[in-house]
Amino acid sequence: MRLVVQRVTKASVTVNHEVLGRIGRGLVVMVGISETDTPEAAPPLAERLVSLRIFEDDQGKMNLSAGDVGAGFLVIPAFTVYAGTERGRRPDFTSAARPESAEPIFEHFLQALRSSGLQVETGRFRSHMDVELLNDGPVCISLESK
For residue 137, what is the enclosing H or E element? Predict the structure, then answer.
């Protein structure tokens, strides 16, 4: 699994003019699932995300985690996170899992993230989504399962 994480002051996701999720201070998380990923990868990655120290303390240093500051998560399924761009001008998505196998792993990740007790909002799998966010910093970090 691969996550692209952006620290935000607010964010929302909309499908067909319907707001599916909205957060204030928190993290927008684009989740990519590869063809070799398994559900077992989800809980450790969710735990790393919750404890990732990317929020500033009183001295302006990134010493606080989402758990420390009560941040929300807006989690977006995004197979394009696994785009291969080594050759040509069109991205190759053969490393991304097919939707049928990716969606249960995505749901497993959401379940693990929700167990943190923090707010978790999400987009809709297999939908064209409009994601609106106000990037804070900007801070943009990627995480991968082992």
Answer: strand 130-144
